[in-house]
Amino acid sequence: MVSRSAEDYRRARHAGIECCIEPAFWSGQDKRHAGAFFDYFEQIIDHETDRAERAANMDHYVTIGLEPKEANYRDMAAEVLDRIPEYLDRDPVVGVGEIGFDQVTDAEEWAFRRQLELAEDRELPVIVHTPHTDKPSGTERIVEIIEEMGVTQERIIIDHNTENTIDISTRTDCWIGFTLYPGKIEAASAIDLLEEYGTDNMIFNSAADWDPSDPLAVPKARDRMIDRGWDREEVRTVVFDNPYEFFNQSPNFDYEA
Ligand SMILES: [Zn+2]
Q1: Is the distance from CB of 204 to CB of 223 less than 8 angstroms?
Q2: 68, 102 contact by CB (below 8 A)
Q3: Deepest in the core among 15, 122, 129, 211, taking most CB within 10 A?
Q4: Dihedral of alpha carbons 80, 86, 88, 92, sign
Q5: pTM for the complete prediction?
Q6: In angstroms, what is the span from residue 142 Cα to ligand 1's centroid?
Q7: Using CA atoms, how far apart are residues 178 and 196, in angstroms rounded to an integer?
Q8: Distance of CA 237 from the midpoint of ligand 1 (Å)
Q9: Domain 16-247 = CATH 3.40.50.720
Q10: 229 CA to middle of ligand 1, Å?
């Protein structure tokens, strides 16, 4: 949680979070130098993993990838992609991500395909970011590419789903993520969708960025589901068992449930 204080790790731990997976993401301003990515990767791999343990005795893992927005700086992106494999070999790294689409450009598609290949070669889980503008058609395009490339869908999570994308994402064998975040999807609507579509392959996650996101969104959604009368085992499926099963496909994921 590079954009958060040690206190946020403690609050998360008190809310029952023993393990978190931090994806490499867009930092609020486009990076313009490949070196900035390498420093950032080092920071989340080493410093954040150490800080989560020091602050809250929390297991911390990372996914590494070139975020779609920044794929549009083609020269810089090529330099970053060339070195991503060496970061995937590091101990706390459990997957590739987040990758996917922002504006659905050719450069984004090129970076997306290259990173899907990397993940497939190494049999690593992948976090796929769906775009915020024109989301249904961007999600359609993501599904087309995944199907066309024939990559292992069971190792992919299509993230940031809403009521406008769920019918597209559930056509695949990919995992279905809901990022509980103001302006993306709120807990109440995400729970409504689970009541309609069931909990198979469904995963709740949260954001912990610089904007008004909430690192406690998942435990709060858990409480809300219990208050709505959900069976505790079913709640656990969405907030724990499914994400555990998904990331446990990674050889580097050592968290003991
Ligand atoms: Zn994202």
Answers
A1: no
A2: yes
A3: 129
A4: negative
A5: 0.97
A6: 14
A7: 14
A8: 22
A9: no
A10: 30
Q: How far is the CA of 53 from the centre of ligand 1 (A)?
A: 25
Record the tokens describing residue 73, joined without a space: 């700086």
- Do 84 and 115 form a contact (C-beta atoms < 8 A)? yes
CA of 147 to the centre of ligand 1 (A): 21
CB neighbourhood size of 73 (10 A): 18
Q: Could you tell me the distance, in angstroms and rounded to a whole number, from the CA of residue 177 to the centre of ligand 1?
A: 10
pLDDT digit of tens for each residue in the chain (257 aa)?
Answer: 898 999 999 999 999 999 999 999 998 999 999 999 999 999 999 999 999 999 999 999 999 999 999 999 999 999 999 999 999 999 999 999 999 999 999 999 999 999 999 999 999 999 999 998 899 999 999 999 999 999 999 999 999 999 999 999 999 999 999 999 988 899 999 999 999 999 999 999 999 888 889 999 999 999 999 999 999 999 999 999 999 999 999 999 999 88
Length of the chain: 257
Identify the bridge partners of residue 23 per DSSP, sorted by sequence position. 63
CA of 252 to the centre of ligand 1 (A): 22
Measure 129 CA to ligand 1 centroid, in angstroms: 4
Where b means 16+ CB within 10 Å and e means fewer, 181-194 reads: beebbebeebbebb
